[in-house]
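A further point concerns the way the authors explain their paired sequence and structure data. The central task, working out the structure tokens from the amino acid sequence alone, is never made concrete. I therefore recommend that a typical entry be quoted early in the introduction. An entry of this sort, consisting of the sequence and the corresponding backbone structure tokens, reads as follows:
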Amino acid sequence: MALHERCAKLLAEAELKVQQLVSRAGGALEAIDVRPEEPRDAE
């Protein structure tokens, strides 16, 4: 049970750190943070 909780916490923290590279006008790249729209229920 403790391992499951630890893994769930690490996953949630990692999801908050995800970034996406997007192209801007002129070909420049910019990193933007990607946030989940809603927290997922534990499955």
